[in-house]
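During the first year of the project, the team set up a workflow for recording each protein of interest as an amino acid sequence followed immediately by a discrete structure-token representation. This format lets reviewers and collaborators read both layers of information side by side without switching files. As required by the reporting guidelines, we include two representative entries from the current panel. The first entry is reproduced here exactly as it appears in our internal archive.
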Amino acid sequence: MRTDYISKACGRIAKIYKLTNRETEILQYLCFYGCNNIELAERMFISVKTLKNHIHSIQIKTQSTSTRNLLAMVIRRISEDLSGGVEAVSPMAELPRVAAR
């Protein structure tokens, strides 16, 4: 998996929308692991409520209505980066699958 693409895309999104370091980390975890809130909170050693508060804050800052929209934003950013001549590879093949919620 090409985690460097995800990290760069999340970093750029973080700068655009002025996300905190923790919010950026949570956005990356959402992309890397694609698990539900309980599993993600356990991975990050935080409560589910804290995780939900961070995700809600990210959604407000990015004017996103769901976690899927956040993931789509990252995928679009990766696609834009790749179409800029970085490498002609489909980013979709490299991203983890997100379980339906």
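The second entry, processed by the same pipeline in the following quarter, appears below.
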Amino acid sequence: MVDFRTSPDAVGLTAAAADGFIVGGRPFGGEVRLAANPGSASRARAAYGERRLVVLVREGAWDVRDFDPEPAARRAFRGLRVTCGRGPRKPAAGATS
């Protein structure tokens, strides 16, 4: 059974080797304390497959962000069409001709 627990200065991870976690670039089984990650998600100490487990502290609360570098939604997203919301014949409210 996988377990994440917070303490005042770290996040604890408990997992069996069969759970598939990687810590420090090696397959992991046991207990480890993870400090906040410096820098980007690619520098995260813990991972699960291609997903990076980013440990962070915000407003005094510890958290683990599951960063998936290739989520289906990101692959499917093609961008936004952005317009100002007015056509060429509709002046902005309050504008004078």
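For the second entry, the following points were noted during internal review. The chain is about 5% helix and 40% strand. Strands lie at 3-7, 10-15, 21-23, 26-27, 30-34, 46-48, 51-58, 61-67. Both points are flagged for discussion at the upcoming steering committee meeting.
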